């Protein structure tokens, strides 16, 4: 048995006394510390020598050259969209209308499970121990999504969509939706890894009564209400035309903002709307990669922080890599705001690390459960290899993690005290078999879905625009194909 195999075996124990070279806890880097996990939680943290003395029956596991840190918390994900990930590249905004809704609506229960488990695997590989799922429009049972998260070991805030305006919905239909919503909250109330939530896709997808009822239900049941708000210019303008209110103002008018509400994006917000978020204590999922790949704007996250608006970092299902997400958050603020104002700090590094962990956990209603290495919280954490050139020498570890950290440094991923991934692969299920099954079924699933793409694939785009920057004659663009 190799040293790696021996360490993996030791880390699989139900109780652990870990002594990492560095510990990220309570927002600071600490050394010569130890952490004890038992029954899925952190039960003791302190100086190494004192901790070893307090737990003489637990053999200490020394991890020099490793950082023990909280797992990342993805505050906004779409776990059932993984089969079509790169189909949206180069696409104009509101891709949910042309790609995601058609794709999700075509998924049966098997495809729903496969898509969700693939996304969960990607999340864990990227250091996310928790993901907030915004809800699926699949015809498959939402239980298949929950099963996939549970099997993979990903902690999941599981949204159930409660839209009642896909056409016209009668009061009886709205009542049926609310009955299912109550059942969803009850079904997962005491689950170890699944935390129920309710969602309205976008404010215009629900009646005013439904928006208020769902937000109130979440408030009363201690759950999170989710919605995509002020993400795309088209949606803002539609709301202005139909209601003379912007989407965020719409939510406020019907009483759907508040501490229980987590809005995704908020990229197009006015000063008055920022005040609304602050005054109602509504949380925001800041999705910087989504802004870069397919958005109309970048959310003013630094201004939100200055105003005391709660926000977490989310992927929006774009790229499940916690380190690159933090880098994107800092970069987006610097490019969109910092350069114009001479702000060379743009959060000082630590802010993005904090909002990718504890800040995100708090926004999604799990602040007392995960997001930090603290006694009594769930043992959701990462072991990160620091003995790499990028981290040597070290002068500012938090900022180094934001700018230099990489997914391939993650040696081990734990949720609820259990080793889930070792060196990028699950320890208790066959991920390669999952990948093979996905490759087998994905083509038929995509071909079946009535997806409408505007932008061509890279190879077609290259053919159209020629090699080495030489333009291709328009007659070679194809019959009826859109020009990019």
From TrEMBL:
Keyword DNA damage (UniProt): no
Spans annotated as Disordered: 455-484
Residue span(s) of domain Amidohydrolase-related: 68-398
Instruction: Give the range the annotation lists for the signal sequence.
Output: none
Q: Which domain of life is it from?
A: Bacteria
Q: Which UniProt keywords apply?
A: Hydrolase
Bias (Basic and acidic residues): 456-468
Q: Which family does it belong to?
A: Belongs to the metallo-dependent hydrolases superfamily. ATZ/TRZ family.
What name appears for this protein in its UniProt entry?
S-adenosylhomocysteine deaminase
- Origin species, per record, is Halomonas litopenaei
